[in-house]
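can u do me a favor
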């Protein structure tokens, strides 16, 4: 079957699925495979649950004409996404970066959706499977697409660009994330900058914060750059950031000065796409972070900054620095291990431990083997090898009206602490 014919079937289906537990009626099911699963085995279930067609790559599972056999299901999903993206021919904004991708994407989406019908990446579906699913979630009513791109090794952003074919792009920052896969910080810079290389080679538009010299160097001598970073001014960050824009104050529901850059991106794109100033302000003020990203939670007399979606050395430093500046007392940090740091893991965890000691919080709690292996004798620091060890000892702390910062890598799942506090 040609990709053109498959696309005609897709337009009739309108939606795709890769999970038989989330089948919508008349969708197109793609039987993806992984190290521990084979979607071909569940194709029959997908049809039983309401799928109109199933895409498989093992012919022995075909039972009738509702089964479409291809050479490679994943490659077909990606090819269909590219064909659909070209079929729609709409502006696509792509963004990547070490920290703040999802928050920035959400802010851009709420701003642009004040004027346009937008479709944006759901959650963090930003890899070689998530990007095609995002593209296929767009339809004829979509006026602007917003595609988040994640990567943990070089050439990944380059590949994702061949799927999304972005017209506009930005990098939130370069940080110490996925150092193991990228081969160090220089590898991070090179890998993330693959977005710039694609945009430049296709004469597309790059948005760059004028105050980020490292990004300016990476973009190089290129004419089609929109600089931002002077449209607004940070006023306060206690505990939420506020800024002045067009002589008006924007009071956000975002904590952390590091989020100021994310707001600046949304303002810049709002201006570029001619969203009314009042709508830009309303959109930013109404945005409430979720999914364990810089959430402020008041619970049982405690104020909690829950930033447990992910962590790397750069984001950890930013979160700790912001927490130290807050005008609050009885501060306690609960930090979990940072993953994918390769040979630098011990050094980076030691650096964070040293920083915490210098900031003199009331208590510092470290959870995970990496932190446990570099534990110090600081009387205010407490180290636990696992979450279960911390869980079993939690009652001995006797917390009373504390201010907490909870941050760690996704694998630590530190949001579980909310059940204890």
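np, heres the sequence
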């Amino acid at each position: 079957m040609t990709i053109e014919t498959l696309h005609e079937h897709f337009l009739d289906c309108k939606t795709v699925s890769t999970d038989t537990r989330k089948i919508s009626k008349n969708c197109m099911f793609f039987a993806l495979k992984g190290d521990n699963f084979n979607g071909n085995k569940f194709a029959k279930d997908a049809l039983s649950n309401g799928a109109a067609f199933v895409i498989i790559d093992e012919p022995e599972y075909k039972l009738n004409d509702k089964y479409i056999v291809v050479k490679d299901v994943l490659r077909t999903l990606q090819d269909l996404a590219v064909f659909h993206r070209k079929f729609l021919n709409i502006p696509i904004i792509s963004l990547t970066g070490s920290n703040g991708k999802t928050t920035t994407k959400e802010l851009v989406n709420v701003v642009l959706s004040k004027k346009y019908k937008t479709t944006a990446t759901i959650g963090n579906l930003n890899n070689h499977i998530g990007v095609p699913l995002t593209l296929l979630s767009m339809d004829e009513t979509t006026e602007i697409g917003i595609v988040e791109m994640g990567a943990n090794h070089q050439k990944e952003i380059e590949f994702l660009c061949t799927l999304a074919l972005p017209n506009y792009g930005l990098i939130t920052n370069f940080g110490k994330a996925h150092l193991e896969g990228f081969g160090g910080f220089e590898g991070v810079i090179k890998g993330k900058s693959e977005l710039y290389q694609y945009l430049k080679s296709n004469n597309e538009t790059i948005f760059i914060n004028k105050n980020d010299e490292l990004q300016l160097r990476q973009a190089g001598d290129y004419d089609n750059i929109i600089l931002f970073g002077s449209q607004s001014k940070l006023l306060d960050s206690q505990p939420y950031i506020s800024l002045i824009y067009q002589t008006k104050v924007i009071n956000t529901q975002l904590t952390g000065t590091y989020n100021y850059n994310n707001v600046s991106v949304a303002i810049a794109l709002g201006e570029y796409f001619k969203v009314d100033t009042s709508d830009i302000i309303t959109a930013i003020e109404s945005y409430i972070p979720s999914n364990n990203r810089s959430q402020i939670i008041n619970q049982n007399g405690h104020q909690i900054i829950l930033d447990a979606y992910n962590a790397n050395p750069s984001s950890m430093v930013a979160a700790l620095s912001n927490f130290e500046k807050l005008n609050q007392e009885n501060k306690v940090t609960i930090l979990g291990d940072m993953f994918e740091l390769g040979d630098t893991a011990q050094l980076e965890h030691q650096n964070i431990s040293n920083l915490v000691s210098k900031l003199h919080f009331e208590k510092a709690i470290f959870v995970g083997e990496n932190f446990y292996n570099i534990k110090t004798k600081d009387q205010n620091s407490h180290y636990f090898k696992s979450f279960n060890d911390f869980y079993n000892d939690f009652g001995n702390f006797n917390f009373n009206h504390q201010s907490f910062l909870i941050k760690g890598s996704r694998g630590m799942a530190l949001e579980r602490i909310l059940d204890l506090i």
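DSSP finds 16 helices and 19 strands in the chain. hope that helps!!
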